[in-house]
Amino acid sequence: MVGQTQPTSPVSISGHDGHRSRAPEFYGFVAWTSTSLAFVIFVLWAILPDEQLRYLGITWYPNREWAVLLPAYSVMLVLLTYFTYFSLALAQTPAFSDVCAFADTQAHLAASNASSPYLQHGGINTVPEPHDVPIGVVNQVLYGPKKYRE
């Protein structure tokens, strides 16, 4: 019998003492604070008149048109990124008529010499081994047996 102090015991006590570094909390606080401060400075630069900025001692700053251009460029960059990823995913998707649209290299098919796992039934509480369902079986279940046109 394995004791509770053995490493293979499911109830063994973890070697972790519960103390963890608080560095991520500090980094998160600094990131949140600096981002908020940068946003407030950006908004003040965008809306304050030139006289008030000079009164505060700020004599050089970018042209005010950048207050509109930066957010507009940022929005367009985000939209372009979404469009690019969507286009790449669409370009790499196989056509519906392509065989790899319903069977690929990752398919887990049943062995061809074994009996069909879809037709055999085990006991009442038996869970069958998971397999990918072949497209022929899917079509037969969904649409019934083939009907030939005369």
TrEMBL record:
One of its GO terms (biological process) is GPI anchor biosynthetic process. Pfam families: PIG-P (PF08510). It is found in: Membrane. Residues 25-143 form the PIG-P domain. The keyword Membrane applies. The chain crosses the membrane at residues 26-48, 68-88. It is a multi-pass membrane protein. One of its GO terms (cellular component) is membrane. Its main location: membrane. It comes from Scleroderma citrinum Foug A. This is PIG-P domain-containing protein. Keywords: Membrane, Transmembrane, Transmembrane helix.
